[in-house]
UniProtKB/TrEMBL annotation:
Matching PROSITE patterns: HAMP, HIS_KIN
Domain Histidine kinase per the UniProt entry, residue ranges: 267-484
Membrane topology per record: Multi-pass membrane protein
Annotated SUPFAM superfamilies: ATPase domain of HSP90 chaperone/DNA topoisomerase II/histidine kinase, HAMP domain-like, Homodimeric domain of signal transducing histidine kinase
Catalytic activity: ATP + protein L-histidine = ADP + protein N-phospho-L-histidine
Recorded superkingdom: Bacteria
Positions of the HAMP domain: 205-259
Enzyme class: transferase
Natural source organism: Limosilactobacillus panis DSM 6035
Keywords, comma-separated and alphabetical: Kinase, Membrane, Phosphoprotein, Transferase, Transmembrane, Transmembrane helix, Two-component regulatory system
Descriptive protein name: Signal transduction histidine-protein kinase ArlS
InterPro entries documented for this protein: ArlS_N (IPR041610), HAMP_dom (IPR003660), HATPase_C_sf (IPR036890), HATPase_dom (IPR003594), His_kinase_dom (IPR005467), HisK_dim/P_dom (IPR003661), HisK_dim/P_sf (IPR036097), HssS/ArlS-like (IPR050398)
């Protein structure tokens, strides 16, 4: 056990599992053992009770053949008709009367109607009870409970009481079996608890071993978030294996996010450093001598205004990117008819760039509604069409397609311009990434447009992809899930 910073004592999950397994097994086995123990002992007790009842019948039935009250002589005549003296006469009869009539652990007392003891096979622990009804009851003996049977003996002929019979079952064999069974149950209970605890600990050590790997990985990552360490992947096929995959994916995303943030800060610093330096240089020059030269003053003001506008655009794009990462929270219930937006952007660009040929291939036969804010979809299409125009210098032709998949709508924007190399195509959606930084700067781009488009589309559970090759143009494809039964749009 280890002490934690919050003051609570650390208890291993393996130990908790082992204790929980042991306690669970204890409860289950205790219930089963109690049920079996109770059933067995009750069955054994019923056998002893049946034996006592059978002994009472075996002894009372032969004696009931007498017409007169029982005497020692009449009892002897009934129980020893051959006069072979298989028993000792008198009140101190020590052995069973006849083996067929009673068992060795049954003690028998026979009384005449006046309560005088006529025959006894041993000293009874229970007090004599001369009652006129048959009764079998439990009494407390010297060491444990005993069974007592009392009954009157009626003559078969006269139907009057000719004596009384009392039989005692000392239950010694029952008590012995009871103690042995109780001891075995206790030992079995202890063995089950010990075995289940050890088995639970062993199983937890094997099954929860990935948690130890996750723990070690988290400790390393917490000390250095940039360290490239992952949880070892096992061949298991269970919830922990899925957890490891999800955890490693999360670390991968976090690693990429940290790298992107680091690159973002570096790029922002670089992007802002240049216009700030330019503006500062022109202001310094004007302060020193340029303010007296109208031409220099005019040129410096124009250059400063251009750089200020570029900084403003950069800040605006950074704000757009930040908002794009929160669309799922702020615009989750927005709905838009895709057909209307695509046709609007198509018509706008035809008007803005008459020197370009814009073609729209609309395969939709009906209005298609998707879960996206209208302005965001228009913003994405404008970004893609604007890029297509910028990088189409020789063949000024743009194709826009609109089609439907199984449960999605697909928008394609294709140009026939410069194209993008495969190694660059993988990074065009990264922040501030530009395939050709010098040419992109001349075209006025900051490298955030495609990144904003990707964040917006993915925020609405869609996807955006690029197919391109140098000299053959580029095809951007947007896929958005369709709302099958849209509510009425405002």
């Amino acid at each position: 056990m280890k002490s934690q910073k919050n003051g609570k004592r650390f208890v291993s999950l393996r130990l908790k599992w082992a204790i929980g397994t042991a306690v669970g097994s204890l409860i289950i086995f205790f219930i089963v053992a109690i049920a079996m123990f109770t059933s067995f002992t009750q069955n054994l007790f019923q056998q002893e009770r049946s034996l006592l009842n059978q002994g009472m019948d075996n002894i009372s039935q032969p004696l009931a053949k007498n017409d007169q009250s029982l005497t020692k002589h009449s009892i002897e005549q009934v129980l020893d008709p051959n006069n072979n003296h298989s028993f000792v006469r008198g009140a101190d009869y020590r052995r069973p009367v006849v083996k067929e009539l009673s068992d060795g652990h049954l003690l028998v007392n026979i009384y005449n109607p006046q309560g005088k003891l006529l025959l006894s096979t041993g000293h009874l622990e229970g007090k004599p009870s001369l009652i006129n009804e048959r009764q079998v009851r439990i009494a407390q003996g010297k060491h444990h409970k005993i069974l007592l049977g009392h009954m009157p003996i009626y003559s078969h002929d006269t139907q009057r009481v000719i004596g009384y019979l009392q039989i005692e079952n000392n239950l010694n064999s029952y008590a012995k079996s009871y103690r042995q069974l109780r001891l075995v149950s206790i030992m079995a209970l202890c063995l089950v608890v010990l075995a289940s605890g050890l088995l639970g600990y062993a199983l937890s050590y094997f099954l929860l071993r990935p948690l130890g790997d996750i723990h070690d990985t988290v400790k390393v990552i917490s000390k250095d978030p940039t360290k490239n360490v992952r949880v070892p992947v096992s061949n298991r096929n269970d919830e922990l294996a899925e957890l490891i995959d999800m955890f490693n994916d999360m670390l991968d995303r976090m690693q990429r996010y940290i790298e992107q943030q680091s690159q973002f800060v570096s790029d922002v610093s670089h992007e802002l450093r240049t216009p700030v330096a330019i503006i500062q240089g022109h202001l310094d020059m004007l302060e020193r001598w340029g303010k007296d030269d109208p031409q220099v003053l005019s040129d410096s003001l124009k250059a400063s205004l251009i750089e200020t506008k570029r900084m403003k655009n950069l800040v605006q794009e950074m704000l757009d990117l930040s908002r794009a990462e929160q669309v799922e929270i702020n615009y989750r219930n927005e709905k838009t008819v895709v057909n209307d937006v695509v046709h609007q952007v198509f018509n706008n660009f035809k008007m803005l760039y008459p020197e370009f040929t814009f073609n729209l291939d609309d395969d939709l036969d009906e209005k298609i509604t998707v879960n996206i804010y209208r302005d965001h979809l228009e913003q994405v299409l404008v970004i893609l069409c604007d890029n297509a125009v910028k990088y189409s210098q020789d063949r000024k032709e743009i194709h826009i397609t609109l089609s439907r998949g199984m449960n999605t709508v697909e928008i394609g924007i294709q140009d026939f311009g410069e194209g993008i190399a495969p190694e660059d195509a993988k990074r065009v959606f990264d922040r501030f990434y530009r395939v050709d930084k010098a040419r992109s700067r001349k075209k006025g781009g900051n490298g955030l447009g495609l990144s904003i488009a990707k964040r917006l589309i993915e925020g609405y559970h869609g996807s955006i992809s690029l197919e391109s090759s140098p000299g053959a143009g580029s095809l951007f494809k947007i896929v958005l899930p369709i709302i099958e039964d849209p509510e009425s749009l405002e």
